[in-house]
Amino acid sequence: MSVVTLFVQSQNASSERRFLKSLTVGELKVRLEAIVGISASDQRLALQHNDAAVCMLDDNSRMLGYYPVADYMTLNVEATNSVATQLNFNDDSQVEKYVMDDDEYDKRRDTVRAFKRRHNLGRFADNKSAMSIDEEDEFRAEASGIHVDDRCQVEVLGSGTRLGAVRFVGKTQFRPGYWVGVEFDEPTGKHDGTVDGVRYFECRNQHGSFVRPDKVTVGDFPEEDLFSDLEEM
User: Fold this and answer.
1) What is the average pLDDT across 125-146?
2) What whole-number distance in Å separates Cα of residue 80 and Cα of residue 78?
3) pTM (predicted TM-score)
């Protein structure tokens, strides 16, 4: 089985293709129609090599191998019909597009919007779904016993406990539920009381943090002395 590799070139398409030499020119044109978008009956075929003309493939009954065809020659496909010449298959602006109106799209069950709605994602997120009512009530109850300026001890995951003072108690914009804003005695916090551009309290930079009320214990905790470990001179 003899195969030849050709560069197919037309006004609107260019690609490397392999063809059987046993194809007739007529059969070749039928295959080229799907490649270049020109009807087989409107094609004019010409072989070129290094930009020099080799021959015309002008007999539909002749096999491709009848002509002096060789690998990596260029097969130029021209349109004999002026309408075919005007078609540009790389320009999708000429293609009629189906546009679904928003109401119809909203009714479909197999869309990204439907998926987000089912799973409360994105703009369909319900803050209440992120936290059960029982959890929010529990945090509210525990927060009720915590007051601004109370001294406190905070449980920090992986870091034991830290001492500080309560600077905020209530709900926030960054997460649902009740939170306690704490100013730590040491600079082990994350901010100065501002989160996402919203100021909830004021404190020294890198001393502020938000924790859940169940991590806070209020009491008569003395302020931590940063120099307590230094020997007297």
Assistant:
1) 70
2) 6
3) 0.43
